[in-house]
C-alpha cells in the first residue's frame, strides 16, 4: 500500500492543501472539518451517482476463471483488503486491478464473477460507500489503508477503503486478525489453521454452515477473551454472520450438486482467502445468492451485539446500533448516528451525493422491511 503524506496530514488534523499534491480520489471525506471539506471538495472530480445496475439477464452457473479474466498478482500500489471476494475479482480483472472502483462496477463484478444476488450486492456496496468510500467522486477502495511512517510511536493514518476499522471492516473475521492486534486485513496463517481445524472437526474436511456456526461462535469467544477493545455493534453484528455464510454459497463451484452442494473444499477456500484467486476452471454459483444461512449460524449460538468494556472478558451487551435481530434499528442508527457522525453538516455536491446514496441504500432496506421508515438525516430531499 502506498504511503500518502497528504492523507497522513488529514488524519493528523494538520491538513494543509498544496497545488502540487492531490487528495486521493477514493479516500472518504467522513470526519473532515468544514474547512477541510471546503478546500478538498472543489479539487475532486464530482460525479452524479447513477442508479444501481439491475441483475444480469443470465444468472446460471458459468465458467468465470476464463481467458478474458486471467489471474495476475497485484502490482505495487494495487490495493487489496479484508474481503476475499472483492480481492479475487480485482486480481482477475472483473474489477479494476488497482482495487479502486465505482459502486456500479462492484455490483456488476460481484454479479458476473460470483452470482451475488442484486439486492445483497446493492446493500453491501452502498453501506460500504457511505462509510468507507468517497461519495463525491463515487469511488471506493477495496483496500485503501495508508500508514504514516516515521512517527514515534508509529501513528496509523487510516484514509479509508474497506480496511477502515469499525466502519465496515470489523473484529472477529474468520481469517483476518482484529485491528487491536495490528493487522486487520491480511490473511493470517494461524487463523487459517483454525479454519482448517474446524472444517475437519465439524465438516469432515469441508467448510459448511455447521462449521460456519461453530467457527463464528469460537472467533467471538476468542476476541472476548483476548481483545480488550473487541466490538461487534450494528452493521458488524449483521456482517459477522453474513460473511460466515458467503463462502458456502459463493465459493463452491456451481457445478456441484446433491450432497456436494454447500460443502466448500479447503483447497478452493485457501485459493480465495489466501491467494485471491479462483480455483482453476471455477464456475460461479448456479443461482444468485449471498448470505443465506446467516440466520442458522446466528441461532446456533446467538450472541447479542456488544463489546468488551476496556479489558478482556468484560463483554457487555450494546444494542444501541441495532443488529441482526433488529434490522430497522440498525438501518435507522446507521444513517442517523454512523453516517451523520461522519458527515454532520454536508453542503453542496457532498450533501446531494450523500442524499442520493442514502436513497439507494434505503431501497435495499425497504424491499425487506417495508414498514421501516426512511430516515432523512439532513432534512427533506
Ligand atoms: C458487494 C460488495 C462487497 C463488499 C462491499 C464487501 C466488503 C467486505 C468487507 C469490508 C469485509 C471485511 C469484514 C471483516 O471481516 O472485517 C468482507 C469480508 C468478507 N467478504 Fe466481502 N464484500 C463484498 C462482496 C463479497 C463477495 C461477492 C464475496 C464472496 C464471493 C464476499 C466474501 C467475503 C467473506 C467470505 C468475508 C469474510 C472474510 C473473513 O472473515 O476472513 N464478499 N467483505
Ligand atoms: C489495520 O492494520 C494496519 C496494517 O497492519 C495497521 O497499520 C492499522 O493500524 C490497523 N488499523 C487499526 C484501526 O488498527
Ligand atoms: C495471526 O493471528 C494470531 C491469533 O490471533 C496472532 O497471535 C498473530 O500475531 C497473527 N499473526 C500476524 C502475522 O498478524
Ligand atoms: C457439514 O458437514 C458435516 C460432516 O459431513 C455434516 O455432519 C453436517 O450435516 C454438514 N452440515 C451442513 C449444513 O451441510
Ligand atoms: C464498564 O466500565 C466502566 C468504567 O470502567 C464502568 O463504570 C461500567 O460499570 C462498566 N460497565 C459494565 C456493564 O461492566
Ligand atoms: C436522529 O437524531 C436526531 C438527533 O439526535 C433526533 O432528534 C432524531 O429523532 C433522530 N431520528 C430518528 C429517526 O431516530
UniProtKB/TrEMBL annotation:
PROSITE patterns found in the cross-reference section: HEME_HALOPEROXIDASE
GO molecular function: metal ion binding; peroxidase activity
Cofactor(s) listed in the protein's UniProt record: heme b
Keywords for the protein's UniProt record, in alphabetical order: Heme, Iron, Metal-binding, Oxidoreductase, Peroxidase, Signal
Region annotation Disordered: where it falls in the sequence: 47-83
Residue spans of biased composition, Basic and acidic residues class: 64-78
All residue ranges annotated as the Heme haloperoxidase family profile domain in the record: 67-304
Family annotation (Pfam families): Peroxidase_2
Keyword rRNA processing: no
Signal peptide positions (record): 1-22
Homology family: Belongs to the chloroperoxidase family.
Name recorded for this polypeptide: Cloroperoxidase
Organism ancestry: Eukaryota, Fungi, Dikarya, Basidiomycota, Agaricomycotina
Amino acid at each position: 500500500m502506498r504511503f500518502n503524506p497528504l492523507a497522513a496530514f488529514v488524519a493528523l488534523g494538520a491538513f494543509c492543501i498544496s497545488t502540487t499534491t492531490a487528495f486521493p480520489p477514493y479516500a472518504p471525506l467522513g470526519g473532515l472539518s468544514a474547512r477541510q471539506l471546503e478546500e478538498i471538495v472543489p479539487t475532486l472530480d464530482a460525479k452524479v451517482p447513477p442508479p444501481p445496475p439491475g441483475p444480469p439477464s443470465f444468472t446460471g452457473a458459468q465458467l468465470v476463471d476464463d481467458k478474458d479474466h486471467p489471474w495476475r498478482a497485484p502490482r505495487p500500489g494495487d490495493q487489496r483488503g479484508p474481503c476475499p471476494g472483492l480481492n479475487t475479482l480485482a486480481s482477475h480483472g472483473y474489477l479494476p486491478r488497482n482495487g479502486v472502483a465505482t459502486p456500479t462496477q462492484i455490483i456488476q463484478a460481484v454479479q458476473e464473477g460470483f452470482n451475488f444476488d442484486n439486492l445483497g450486492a446493492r446493500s453491501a456496496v452502498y453501506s460500504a460507500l457511505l462509510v468507507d468510500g468517497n461519495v463525491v467522486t463515487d469511488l471506493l477502495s477495496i483496500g485503501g489503508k495508508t500508514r504514516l511512517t516515521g512517527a514515534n510511536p508509529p501513528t496509523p493514518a487510516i484514509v479509508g477503503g474497506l480496511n477502515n476499522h469499525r466502519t465496515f471492516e470489523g473484529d472477529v473475521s474468520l481469517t483476518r486478525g482484529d485491528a487491536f492486534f495490528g493487522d486487520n486485513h491480511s490473511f493470517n496463517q494461524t487463523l487459517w489453521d483454525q479454519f482448517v481445524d474446524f472444517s475437519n472437526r465439524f465438516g469432515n474436511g469441508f467448510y459448511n454452515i455447521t462449521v460456519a456456526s461453530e467457527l463464528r461462535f469460537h472467533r467471538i469467544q476468542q476476541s472476548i477473551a483476548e481483545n480488550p477493545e473487541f466490538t461487534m455493534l450494528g452493521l458488524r453484528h449483521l456482517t459477522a454472520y453474513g460473511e460466515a455464510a458467503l463462502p458456502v454459497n459463493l465459493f463452491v463451484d456451481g457445478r456441484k450438486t446433491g450432497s456436494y452442494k454447500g460443502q466448500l473444499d479447503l483447497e478452493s477456500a485457501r485459493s480465495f482467502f489466501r491467494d485471491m484467486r479462483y480455483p482453476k476452471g471455477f464456475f460461479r454459483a448456479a443461482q444468485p445468492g449471498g448470505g443465506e444461512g446467516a440466520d442458522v449460524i446466528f441461532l446456533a449460538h446467538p450472541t447479542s451485539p456488544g463489546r468488551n468494556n476496556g479489558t478482556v472478558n468484560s463483554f457487555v451487551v450494546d444494542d444501541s446500533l441495532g443488529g441482526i435481530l433488529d434490522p430497522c434499528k440498525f438501518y435507522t442508527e446507521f444513517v442517523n448516528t454512523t453516517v451523520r457522525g461522519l458527515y454532520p453538516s454536508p453542503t453542496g455536491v457532498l450533501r446531494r451525493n450523500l442524499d442520493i446514496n442514502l436513497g439507494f441504500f434505503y431501497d435495499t432496506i425497504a424491499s425487506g422491511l417495508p414498514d421501516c421508515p426512511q430516515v432523512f438525516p439532513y432534512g427533506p430531499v
